[in-house]
Amino acid sequence: MTFIILVACIVSLVVLTTWAKVNPFLAFLTVGTAAALLLRMPVEDISKSVNKGIGDTLGSLVIVIILGAMLGKLVAESGAAQRITLMMQQFFGTRHLVWAMSITGFLVGIPLYYNVGFVLMIPIIFSVAYQYKLPLIYVGLPMLASLSVMHGFLPPHPSPIALVVQFNADIATTFGYGIIIAIPAIILAGPLFATTIRNIPARPATVSLCVERPHHELPGAVNSLVSSLLPVLLIGITTLLSRIFSEHAIAQRVFSFVAEPNQAMLLTIVIVTYSLGIGMGKKLSSIMSIYGEAVKDIAMVLLIIGSAGILKQIFFDSGVSKDIADAFKQLDFPPLILAWTITAVLRLALGSATIAGLTAAGVVYPLTQQTYVDPNLLVLSIGAGSLFCSHVNDTAFWLFKEYFGLTIKDTFRSWTMMETLVSIIGLIGVLLLDYMIR
Fold first, then answer.
1. Which residues lie closer than 8 Å to 302 by C-beta, 6 or more apart?
2. In a domain, 96, yes or no
3. Are 166 and 365 in contact (CB under 8 A)?
4. One-letter-per-residue 3-state SS of the chain
5. What does pTM read for this prediction?
6. How far, CA to CA in Å, does 40 sit from each of 13, 36, 47?
7. What is the mean pLDDT of residues 157-174?
8. Do residues 389 and 348 make contact, with C-beta atoms less than 8 angstroms apart?
9. Is 120 inside any structural domain?
């Protein structure tokens, strides 16, 4: 009965948001409440789960998304994004722009969580597409494929780093294996796949691109690049320094504090308000107006992202995730394939890659005591499964849809298919590595 309710909820979400055109926020709230009642959760606990689902999801994202939107708006309005596209043209040429986007996403995705990197890179994606009159999906998907792979496969992202600890894996080995698997996954699911869907129309409404400015009015190249990538630089450098000075308590605490995405974004806004605003002759009041417009642009996006956490929390609190995991214990699969399968099913049900990975780990760990399996590959197998078939209960699905202005159908054709390719290619890479190192 649990599985019937689970399938019914997912189907209901798809029908409500695609056929009935119900606002996704209302659809998640309605279906989540109905699921809790059908799963016989105590009535007094339903509201708690709903509030926790929204709060936990937005609590870790709202500051970063809002500050990131402000940064993106200022990068666009100041002409910094236009300057960056001119630099990319000089270094890579128009023919290789999608590969340049993949490389950028690969590098940015190592220190940054997916949602943070997404918001920070969106202005550059839009600027490149606008500048070179290229399809938005064709330009953006390769970079986002790189960000997603980094988030799902590699430490120091939440799920991989927790799995490394739980399975007693070696973080350096896992990272090395992960890079080997990540590169073909990014190439196949990024630039190559993007060529097959370049005609999908995108009608973005959340990021405004300003009119092309004369070159002499643009910020300098170094100012534009450093200002746009400052959160990446702050997080990457301070994370490295915090490890180098791990024996110096005060320095380590300072660097760890600045490395937090919220703090790095806040410091970035303070700096770029001058470097791309006041320093370029703008008044503080006009800069604040730009920031205010940025918040209005992403208000509905925030609601949708928060509501996607409702269903995840209902399933988690009601014990559905445990029921799904227990059912797969009976399957006689090789550990690496079983780990991927369990995680992929949980990902379908819960939406969250991190929760799916951590839930699957609790099931797979006892099985590893019976059959030897390389713990580093086990981390990567679960990581690959956690990216499988992102759909309407995943916040990243809605981020992609809303920012790119796509229909539900086209989001499935582009984003969901890309994530599925990444997951399957990742599993194949894990199995090949397992064969080679035995």
1. 58, 62, 65, 66
2. yes
3. yes
4. CHHHHHHHHHHHHHHHHHCCCCCHHHHHHHHHHHHHHHCCCCHHHHHHHHHHHHHHHHHCCHHHHHHHHHHHHHHHHHCHHHHHHHHHHHHHCHHHHHHHHHHHHHHHHCCCCHHHHHHHHHHHHHHHHHHHCCCHHHHHHHHHHHHHHHHHHCCCCHHHHHHHHHCCCCHHHHHHHHHHHHHHHHHHHHHHHHCCCCCCCCCCCCCCCCCCCCHHHCCCHHHHHHHHHHHHHHHHHHHHHHHHCCCCHHHHHHHHHHHCHHHHHHHHHHHHHHHHHHHHCCCHHHHHHHHHHHHHHCHHHHHHHHHHHHHHHHHHHHCHHHHHHHHHCCCCCCHHHHHHHHHHHHHHHHCCHHHHHHHHHHHHHHHHCCCCCCHHHHHHHHHHHCCCCCCCCCHHHHHHHHHHCCCHHHHHHHHHHHHHHHHHHHHHHHHHHHHHHC
5. 0.74
6. 20, 6, 13
7. 83
8. yes
9. yes
pLDDT at 143 (0 to 100): 92
Type of residue at 372? Y
User: Shortest CA distance to 350 belongs to which of 330, 323, 331?
Assistant: 323
Domain range for 113 is: 62-155+167-173+208-299
How far apart, in whole angstroms, are the C-alpha atoms of residue 85 and residue 93? 10
Give the per-residue pLDDT at 212.
63
As for how many domains the chain has, the answer is 1
Amino acid at 269: I
* pLDDT bucket at 156, cuts 50 / 70 / 90: low
pLDDT at residue 86 greater than cutoff 80: no
How far apart are the C-alpha atoms of 135 and 116, rounded to whole Å? 23
> Is residue 13 one of the residues assigned to a domain?
no
What amino acid occupies position 119?
A: V
- pLDDT at res. 7: 81
Distance CA 329, CA 166 (A): 19
In a domain, 141, yes or no: yes
Do 259 and 243 form a contact (C-beta atoms < 8 A)? no
Residue carrying structure tokens 């298919």: 417
Residue 406 · residue 202 · CB < 8 Å:
yes
- Cβ neighbourhood burial of 221 (10 Å; 0-12, 13-18, 19+): middle
